[in-house]
# Entry
Amino acid sequence: MKLGDQEISPTKIICIGTNYMDHIEETKLDVPKEPVLFPKTLNCLISNKEPIIYPKFLYNQRKYNRVDYEVELAFIIKDKCKYIPKNEAYNHILGYTVFNDITARKMQAKDILSKLPWFRSKSFDTFGPIGPKIVNTEEIKNPHNLRIELKLNGEIKQSSNTKHLLFKVPELLEYISTFFTLEPGDIVATGTPSGIGPIQPGDIIEATIEKIGTLTNKVVMEGE
Amino acid sequence: MNIKIGNKIIDPTKIICLGRNYIDHAKEMKVQVPKNPVFFVKTVNTLVTNGNPIIYPKILYNNQEYNQVDHEVELAFVVSQTCKNIQAEYAYNYIEGYTVFLDITARKMQISDRNVNLPWYRSKNFDSFGPIGPRIAPYSEIEDPHNLNIQLKINGELRQQSNTKHMLFKIPKILAYLSKFITLVSGDIVATGTPSGVASIQPGDIIEASIDQIGAIIHKVILEE
# Structure
């Protein structure tokens, strides 16, 4: 997959749930003691300017007809790694990009209530826009002081700063790599700030992170 | 990520597993029998081929809260070509073949995560928690994948024994339902769930998992150093 002028070949996407203090306060969730991890499968990846397909299957069912945006800072793994101490984390990161963790919210809420896995609500095709490019770790020395925002049809819906991340990038890589071997190109999305909300066919979503750029995707109805 | 299973090389992009697909297993886990297939993901870092060790992670072994790791033998199928929105009647056109899969699970961690409404991800995805093989029996060799004896032995002692005819959702329905959500591509692996008899494994154990007409995979459990 091509991100800007770099090609990556991810084997997995690992996302962090509830990782912004403003989002945790907004949702009145407990502050997690450890990072909350879930996967997205590779079929969800699309790049800048490609459409997000709103599945008919969700649109036509009242119990499932809500799909949300979630802007996130993502980092890309540079080399095969396991058990990385946090003080060495940046040696294993290729760079940073913008990720939009599109989520079938009603389906997720229903699955969570039934104590089922989060898989299906998170991994529809096109539910993982990423880009517009990878900015390397030399250009962004501190990933924890970047403005992050999302506009829906020009209107600001999410606006925060990566300094509000509860678990920072080095801690995340240390934690994740105690469980899994990471491979070059693997994607870790660090969680979303407050202000999440629904999208509709026809919407234009612009997700921006300072020093990286803007990821723009239009929402289209499946089959149209 | 390329992996050689028997004499075939496949390049899976994802492993999709079914939960609660044998009624006897749903009962032993004291969970409801589902109305629709329950899917979860294993990532490709879990895959190990026949004969390679299953690594028991130290962070589980040394933590009383988490020191239970279970075996689950499953029939898996491998996808032959890109597919989306497949109708059940055409499902077999998209299947390369069948293999044996072990869904190794950090059970106490899974239950503790599930109890607080967290995802099942980490408990299922330690490195080496997805033994697979010994070969991919071609689709054409197995006339009916829903009439195969399936069993698992630990140190020679029988622990799981059932038949794939007891699967709640059969393969065509599984592929039809799954492909409504996601595009599957050549090499993707779908594991169809485990029968009852799941139990824990310990470092030193030899696990032998077999399915009629496919073969057996043998793995030793070793403690991570």
